[in-house]
């Protein structure tokens, strides 16, 4: 590659940010100053493939610059490209893909105010306006309207990120104007977030399987985790052997909890049997579906359980490298996981010889940077590899050609942590929970018009009504959104729907990622639908026409009919149906295919424009 | 002498297209099979010299057993597949894709676009006068070619031709996201500040005329571009010993554009700046 780099130079701080990640440059070919003669500067063929193979450090490099400076300048991007042998045009394409990055100067502090479904119903609009008027011009804080921050149980939410060394973050939820402004102007003195256990109304209930340790163990202590049966499942896995683990997981009937409900055991088996090496394990922690926060609660409250589960999965499929792709808006989960991975490594629970069993495995945490689409499994691969987070065509499927083109298992956080109880209690006992086809426990993210919002763990088969009663649903229920923005609405008279994959499918709706968002009759439904449409328009990657333009046309039509009903809305509803059908049929990935689901269900089930 | 590698003989596989059995060599795409069977499946982002990107979705067909429609350009044919190219469902998606494109992009120089819009009964105006469009101005920042992104359907072909599939210059990429995504060089700078080497291989693959020779752009602006009055002469580039084939497009005894045959086994339609743009000396008549 004969790369062309511009004349822009990085500032000392930008250079330091990149060097802190990659180490100092070895030669002026990599951007070192030409102030002294080095033998490394003599021209010979070096770098080449070895340098290009570090392309996956592009996203961490962009984070390093953005964290330190607050935005990514021409000079900083050029220097990063030199260090990694990445064409500047491609790096620019990657940097402009993510909402958390800016390639234009902006203040060092950005306050992300969530305006998504749960927060909108809790007054996010007034909050955002109040914050802006309190801060006033020249405050040094840039206020950004944000998609769901995954703090729905404490809506409305705001997240402040202040660039520097180190980068500071502060969460304000439930946010008031004063608290959010304090978080943005003085992130260090903002009050500490409440413990993760407060998001688990059932915390301490001994019958829980997945949330058992949340609020019980110290999430910073490996010893505490071990004292609460931690690493018993991994020991059992080593006793069973890889094939035995896959058999247990298959027999347990576990299916993916990310929304697609694919049998986990089959996915593992298909990857394990691929002759191509190496195999990779990817944990999808890019939890971005509006209304979803269960993975955050697990990662914040019981991080070692995820690390143990990933180790078991890697052992089963023969992977020695695992990637944990964490969404960029989860600063506390990042801190907890980084600490936990370091502890596990120091104590021999990760590394070259885990528990003296001769099995080598380690985990790299990669941060997303504000892109819902990167939760799509193949888009996530592209994002990790340092490309734009655009979904790939399938087939080939990830079990055959996944991360770096190698056989890969990608599982959601909740799916993985289910593996721990499967191995400790045994597949038959696990499969006895729930219903015949939806086995085990399921986490539900309940928020909106309820007295006790939070993550609930129930065996599959409980009805929607039972769950809402548990959460203390308020009077005047108008609609329940199941599965988030990609899911669908149901009516208050449909609370008998069993919360299983087959039960929701029979009822013509979806369980999705386990979102249960309750809206009372004070929330204007057309506004809600418009917010969903805006979300999909913002988050479409732009690769395929049905989604790129279809989501825009959907939003425009919903804008036109926001205050119309009956015959006045009929023409646009017909238009929405036609565009929605093409998005569902012809989009490349699940984002476009589901972008019309919630709107369709609101029209057909709720009679939103009648 | 050019030797065309034939490769090892490929097995034939059999499947069904619109009720009739077809036999294609293993590794063929559904589109290859449809074209061999004489079906006119529309395509925009598909390129005969590029790997399928399946971004435009205008070639979707129905495959029995598949949950969604399938892009014919990239899906490999499998034995026993049952493909329907002309069902109501497939035609619906094609029509909507054409409407979405035509309502946001200037398709006036896209070959066959008007014909397909008519054939599928697409009505791009139905999204109303306020429907968002790309609203881009032509970028004229060098003497050789123009980037008119108001005509860009974001098919990725120029990016792929500039990148590892052919040119390995990597001067352009898709920047931004969603409806705001655009083809751009780094920092969206003028072409003259970029890595561009002006080979024009992006123009060669552009399906909509968003990328065009400055000569063509100027003649279109002046209203004197007339393809029916042009002759095409394929000859050999005289600059170096490689001997690339050039096709000279001549109107009124002036070279107005240079392309290269895609079926040339050496260059596959690619040229360098000299072959593509270095023709002025031919018409210096003193």
From TrEMBL, chain A:
<comment type="similarity">
    <text>Belongs to the complex I 24 kDa subunit family.</text>
</comment>
<dbReference type="GO" id="GO:0046872">
    <property type="term" value="F:metal ion binding"/>
</dbReference>
<dbReference type="Pfam" id="PF10531">
    <property type="entry name" value="SLBB"/>
</dbReference>
<feature type="domain" description="NADH-ubiquinone oxidoreductase 51kDa subunit iron-sulphur binding">
    <location>
        <begin position="526"/>
        <end position="573"/>
    </location>
</feature>
<dbReference type="InterPro" id="IPR019554">
    <property type="entry name" value="Soluble_ligand-bd"/>
</dbReference>
<dbReference type="Pfam" id="PF01512">
    <property type="entry name" value="Complex1_51K"/>
</dbReference>
<keyword id="KW-0001">2Fe-2S</keyword>
<dbReference type="InterPro" id="IPR041921">
    <property type="entry name" value="NuoE_N"/>
</dbReference>
<dbReference type="InterPro" id="IPR036249">
    <property type="entry name" value="Thioredoxin-like_sf"/>
</dbReference>
<dbReference type="GO" id="GO:0008137">
    <property type="term" value="F:NADH dehydrogenase (ubiquinone) activity"/>
</dbReference>
<dbReference type="Pfam" id="PF10589">
    <property type="entry name" value="NADH_4Fe-4S"/>
</dbReference>
<dbReference type="InterPro" id="IPR011538">
    <property type="entry name" value="Nuo51_FMN-bd"/>
</dbReference>
<keyword id="KW-0004">4Fe-4S</keyword>
<dbReference type="InterPro" id="IPR037225">
    <property type="entry name" value="Nuo51_FMN-bd_sf"/>
</dbReference>
<keyword id="KW-0479">Metal-binding</keyword>
<dbReference type="InterPro" id="IPR002023">
    <property type="entry name" value="NuoE-like"/>
</dbReference>
<dbReference type="Pfam" id="PF01257">
    <property type="entry name" value="2Fe-2S_thioredx"/>
</dbReference>
<dbReference type="InterPro" id="IPR019575">
    <property type="entry name" value="Nuop51_4Fe4S-bd"/>
</dbReference>
<keyword id="KW-0408">Iron</keyword>
<dbReference type="GO" id="GO:0051539">
    <property type="term" value="F:4 iron, 4 sulfur cluster binding"/>
</dbReference>
<feature type="region of interest" description="Disordered">
    <location>
        <begin position="1"/>
        <end position="31"/>
    </location>
</feature>
<dbReference type="InterPro" id="IPR037207">
    <property type="entry name" value="Nuop51_4Fe4S-bd_sf"/>
</dbReference>
Automatic annotation (TrEMBL), chain B:
<dbReference type="GO" id="GO:0016491">
    <property type="term" value="F:oxidoreductase activity"/>
</dbReference>
<dbReference type="Pfam" id="PF04879">
    <property type="entry name" value="Molybdop_Fe4S4"/>
</dbReference>
<dbReference type="Pfam" id="PF12838">
    <property type="entry name" value="Fer4_7"/>
</dbReference>
<dbReference type="InterPro" id="IPR036010">
    <property type="entry name" value="2Fe-2S_ferredoxin-like_sf"/>
</dbReference>
<keyword id="KW-0479">Metal-binding</keyword>
<dbReference type="InterPro" id="IPR027467">
    <property type="entry name" value="MopterinOxRdtase_cofactor_BS"/>
</dbReference>
<dbReference type="GO" id="GO:0046872">
    <property type="term" value="F:metal ion binding"/>
</dbReference>
<feature type="domain" description="4Fe-4S ferredoxin-type">
    <location>
        <begin position="188"/>
        <end position="216"/>
    </location>
</feature>
<protein>
    <submittedName>
        <fullName>Fe-S-binding domain-containing protein</fullName>
    </submittedName>
</protein>
<feature type="domain" description="4Fe-4S Mo/W bis-MGD-type">
    <location>
        <begin position="230"/>
        <end position="286"/>
    </location>
</feature>
<dbReference type="InterPro" id="IPR050157">
    <property type="entry name" value="PSI_iron-sulfur_center"/>
</dbReference>
<dbReference type="Pfam" id="PF13510">
    <property type="entry name" value="Fer2_4"/>
</dbReference>
<feature type="domain" description="2Fe-2S ferredoxin-type">
    <location>
        <begin position="11"/>
        <end position="89"/>
    </location>
</feature>
<dbReference type="GO" id="GO:0051539">
    <property type="term" value="F:4 iron, 4 sulfur cluster binding"/>
</dbReference>
<dbReference type="InterPro" id="IPR006963">
    <property type="entry name" value="Mopterin_OxRdtase_4Fe-4S_dom"/>
</dbReference>
<keyword id="KW-0411">Iron-sulfur</keyword>
<dbReference type="InterPro" id="IPR001041">
    <property type="entry name" value="2Fe-2S_ferredoxin-type"/>
</dbReference>
<keyword id="KW-0408">Iron</keyword>
<feature type="domain" description="4Fe-4S ferredoxin-type">
    <location>
        <begin position="143"/>
        <end position="162"/>
    </location>
</feature>
<dbReference type="InterPro" id="IPR017900">
    <property type="entry name" value="4Fe4S_Fe_S_CS"/>
</dbReference>
<keyword id="KW-0004">4Fe-4S</keyword>
<keyword id="KW-0677">Repeat</keyword>
């Amino acid at each position: 590659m004969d790369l062309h780099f511009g004349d822009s130079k990085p500032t000392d701080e930008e250079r330091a940010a990149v060097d802190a990640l990659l180490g100092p440059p070895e030669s002026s070919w990599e951007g070192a100053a030409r102030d002294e003669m080095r033998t490394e500067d003599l021209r010979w063929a070096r770098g080449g493939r070895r340098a290009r193979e570090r392309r996956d450090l592009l996203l961490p490099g962009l984070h390093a610059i953005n964290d330190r400076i607050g935005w990514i300048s021409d000079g900083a991007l050029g220097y990063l490209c030199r260090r990694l042998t990445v064409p500047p045009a491609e790096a620019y394409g990657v940097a402009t893909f993510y909402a958390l990055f800016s390639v234009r100067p902006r203040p060092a502090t950005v306050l992300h105010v969530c305006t998504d479904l749960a927060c909108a119903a809790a007054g996010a609009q007034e909050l955002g306006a109040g914050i802006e008027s309190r801060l006033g011009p020249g405050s040094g804080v840039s206020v950004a309207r944000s998609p769901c921050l995954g703090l729905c149980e404490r809506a409305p939410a705001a997240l402040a990120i202040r660039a520097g060394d180190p980068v500071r973050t502060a969460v304000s939820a439930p946010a008031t104007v004063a608290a959010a402004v304090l978080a943005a102007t003085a992130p260090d003195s903002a009050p500490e977030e409440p413990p993760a256990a407060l998001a688990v109304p059932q915390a301490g209930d001994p019958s829980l399987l997945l949330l058992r340790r949340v609020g019980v163990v110290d999430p910073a202590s490996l010893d505490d985790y071990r004292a609460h049966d931690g690493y018993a499942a991994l020991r059992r896995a080593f006793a069973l052997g890889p094939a035995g683990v896959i058999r247990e997981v298959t027999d347990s009937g576990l299916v993916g909890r990310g929304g697609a409900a694919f049998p986990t055991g089959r996915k593992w088996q298909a990857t394990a049997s691929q002759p191509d090496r190496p195999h990779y394990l990817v944990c999808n922690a890019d939890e971005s579906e509006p209304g979803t926060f269960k993975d955050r609660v697990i990662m914040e409250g019981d991080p070692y359980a995820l690390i143990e589960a990933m180790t078991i999965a890697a052992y089963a499929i023969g992977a020695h490298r695992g990637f944990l792709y964490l969404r960029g808006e989860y600063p506390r989960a990042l801190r907890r996981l980084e600490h936990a991975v370091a502890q596990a490594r120091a104590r021999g629970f990760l590394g070259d010889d885990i528990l003296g069993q001769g099995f080598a495995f380690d985990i790299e945490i990669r941060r997303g940077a504000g892109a819902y689409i990167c939760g799509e499994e193949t888009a996530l691969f592209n994002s990790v590899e340092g490309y734009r987070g655009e979904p790939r065509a399938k087939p080939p499927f990830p079990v055959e050609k996944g991360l770096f083109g190698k056989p890969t298992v990608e599982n959601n956080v909740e799916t993985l942590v289910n593996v721990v109880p499967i191995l400790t209690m045994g597949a038959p006992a696990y499969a006895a929970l729930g219903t015949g086809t939806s086995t085990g426990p399921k986490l539900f993210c309940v928020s909106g018009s309820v007295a006790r919002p939070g993550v609930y763990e129930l065996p599959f088969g409980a009805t929607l009504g039972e769950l809402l009663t548990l959460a203390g649903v308020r009077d005047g229920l108008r609609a329940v959104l199941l599965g988030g923005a990609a899911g669908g609405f149901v009516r208050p008279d449909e609370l008998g729907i069993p919360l299983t994959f087959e039960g929701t499918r029979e009822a013509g709706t979806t369980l999705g990622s386990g979102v249960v968002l309750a809206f009372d009759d004070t929330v204007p439904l057309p506004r809600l639908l418009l917010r969903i449409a805006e979300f999909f328009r913002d988050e479409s990657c732009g690769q395929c026409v049905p989604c790129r333009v279809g989501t825009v046309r959907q939003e425009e039509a919903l804008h036109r009919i926001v205050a119309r009903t009956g015959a006045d809305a009929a023409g646009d509803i017909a238009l929405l149906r036609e565009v929605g059908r093409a998005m569902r049929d012809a989009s490349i990935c699940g984002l476009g295919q589901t972008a019309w689901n919630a709107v369709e269900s609101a029209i057909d089930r709720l009679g939103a424009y009648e | 002498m050019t030797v065309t590698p034939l490769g090892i003989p490929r097995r034939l596989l059999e499947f069904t297209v619109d009720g009739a059995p077809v036999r294609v060599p293993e590794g063929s795409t559904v589109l290859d099979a449809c074209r061999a069977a004489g079906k006119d499946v529309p395509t925009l982002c598909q390129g005969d010299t590029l790997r399928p990107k399946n971004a435009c979705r205008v070639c979707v067909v129905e495959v029995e057993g598949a949950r969604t429609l399938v892009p014919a350009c990239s899906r490999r044919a499998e034995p026993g597949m049952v493909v329907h190219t002309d069902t109501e469902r497939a035609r619906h998606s094609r029509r909507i894709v054409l409407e979405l494109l035509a309502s946001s992009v200037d398709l006036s120089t896209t070959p066959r676009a008007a014909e397909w819009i008519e054939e599928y009964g697409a009505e791009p105006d139905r999204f109303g006068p306020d429907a968002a469009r790309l609203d881009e101005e032509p970028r004229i920042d060098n003497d050789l070619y123009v980037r008119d992104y108001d005509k860009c359907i974001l098919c990725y072909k120029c990016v792929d031709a500039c990148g590892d599939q052919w040119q390995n210059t990597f001067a352009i990429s898709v920047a931004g996201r969603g409806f705001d995504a655009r083809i751009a060089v780094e920092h969206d700078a003028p072409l003259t500040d970029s890595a561009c080497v002006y080979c024009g291989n992006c123009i060669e693959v552009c399906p909509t005329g968003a990328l065009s020779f400055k000569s063509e752009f100027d003649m279109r602006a002046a209203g004197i571009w007339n393809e029916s009055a042009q002759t095409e002469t394929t000859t050999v580039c005289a600059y170096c010993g490689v001997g690339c084939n050039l096709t000279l497009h001549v109107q009124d005894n002036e070279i107005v554009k240079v392309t290269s045959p895609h079926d040339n086994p050496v260059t596959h339609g690619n040229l360098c700046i000299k072959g593509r743009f270095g023709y002025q000396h031919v018409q210096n008549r003193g």
